[in-house]
Amino acid sequence: MDKILQISNLHTYYGHIHAIKGISFSVQAGKIIAFIGTNGAGKSTLLKTICGLIPSHSGRIEFRGKEVTNFPSEILVQKGITMVPEGRQIFTNLTVMDNLMLGTFKRFGGREKGAILKDLDLVFRIFPRLNERRFQKGGTLSGGEQQMLAIGRALMTNPELILMDEPSLGLAPLIIREVYKAILQLNQEGLTILLVEQTRNVLEMAHEAYVLQTGQIALAGTGRDLLNNTEVNRIYLGG
């Protein structure tokens, strides 16, 4: 199967804290990969290192077989890696459409217009509520709708790999199920997804999953393997 991402012996410091300690893993195209762990385990730091928001101290990141270690995030977006940040970080004073179009900032040009419209159609098909609210300001949306908007904005960059930092954070259980249903739909559309979470729901849909503990991989397996692991349930999932 086609490997889209390879992480090799990655070390990252967050200030003076050694947050990522020699992590190695690979991601196959078309898969959903999940990282779970407690607060402070290094989950967000891992994603931010991959997408160029935090520099790595050492190690190697390869995307589609080419090294992209410490590339600027705007270059990585052009190459096909994008991120949905923790807390959504939408522009609350801009409309839904304006937020979505900001995702296309590297794509303007005559030949891209048709592709942009096609991606916009995908966003509205996956998240019909965004279509209904396209002229509302982002700040007037519910928390769940803002999360949908954050995902939709990322999709407008036309990614091959999308990183999601706790997409269920602060959402009601019913809305979490709706967001996860959309993530599954996007995966079925061919998108590769790497996400970090603290809920059991993510393991139900992940093809592969890892437990991160103090910056290191403590356990690895399929999502179902970890979901059925007594220690994982007791320590990380509150079971």
Would you give an account of this structure?
The protein has 239 residues and is of the alpha/beta class. The protein has a single domain, classed as 3-Layer(aba) Sandwich (Rossmann fold). It is built from ten helices and ten strands. The strands form two sheets. A six-stranded mixed β-sheet has the order 6-7-8-3-9-10, sandwiched between helices. A four-stranded antiparallel β-sheet has the order 2-1-4-5, covered by helices on one side. Strand 4 (58-63) and strand 5 (66-67) form a beta hairpin. Helix 3 runs parallel beside helix 6 (143-155). The chain is globular, with a radius of gyration of 17 Å. The two termini are 34 Å apart. The model has no long low-confidence stretch (mean pLDDT 91).
